[in-house]
Sequence to fold (323 residues):
Amino acid sequence: SVPIAAGTAEVFITASIGIASTSARVTEATPLLSNADAAMYQAKKRGGGSVEVFGEAMRVRVLDRMNTEHSLHRALERSELRLFYQPVVDIKDSRAIGVEALLRWDHPEQGLVTPNRFIPVAEESGLIIPIGAWVLHEACHQLRRWQMKRCGGLQGAVEVNLSARQVDDPEIVATVECVLTETGLSPSDLTLEITESALMNDAASALGVLRGLKDLGVTLAIDDFGTGYSSLSYLQRFPLDILKIDKTFVDELGVAPEGSKIIAAVINLAHALGLQVIAEGVESERQLQELERLGCDFAQGYLFSRPVPAHELVDAFPERIGA
Ligand code: C2E
Ligand code: MG
Ligand code: MG
Fold:
């Protein structure tokens, strides 16, 4: 814990310790080491500089994670992944301006699994790279199919979520370009959603990636705004087009007068920087009215539609069929 002098700088180092034990009868070192390793990673996850002991709860978690990773590998091969789509609506005239593609895993035993339960494992294992490429391809292909049929009110864009790991991938710009060429989708019909934390990992490299994507002609959105670092400088620094206000802020609308203040400020800030604003997780008419009053551009949420499979989206917007 004592700082180390490196030239003129002082370097602070923390140690994370994982402890595992085993009975005297077990002579194999590998499982013991891997348990200690898992405990150490847990200690690191808690911020480092701490000690963690491998116990029963961790064993269950590690096994569960390994199982998920194993079956996630197969999910890709066995085509168990699905995309659901949720419309994004123009607050002025209630028309869908696009759809967000949201990943689901049609698990053979567990049924439909939501992304929060498997995306973290996909990210840790690196599987998010092939999965993300599949999502991009499928979403662009689906929008292209809709465009050919000209139905479902989908002259708009498809929004695809990129994970931090994908933003770090040196191939990401090439992957997006390749998907656009393969599917024949115009770059302006693709919006990529990136969270604040993905930009903060390595801001300099993220900036390069975002510029590369922007040069392809795609639209860039910052997702879950307000839940992460909310650094105002990067709103200006990164070539962003859309800001998505997180649901937690929308939830506060109409509850207390202060509830509107943050959203009002964020909308003004975004507009001043030339960004358009989407409010996420809009569930009530009252929230929508308040968002309209505050000058928010677009909204998305259960009030309009839950995320649904592609074929159901057409039913959700019957007035647009054949438009
Ligand atoms: P997100 O991108 O912020 O997506 C919005 C989430 O809010 C979705 O959850 C959506 O179903 C949910 N939502 C929308 N409207 C409402 C509402 O009115 N009320 C409530 N309670 N919830 C609403 P979902 O589909 O479970 O996705 C969760 C997160 O998983 C996404 O958050 C996104 O960060 C991630 N995700 C989803 N699909 C992908 C993907 O293809 N790739 C990556 N990397 N991440 C994905
Ligand atoms: Mg999103
Ligand atoms: Mg979001």
User: Anything to note?
Assistant: Residues 253 and 260 are 5 Å apart (CA to CA).
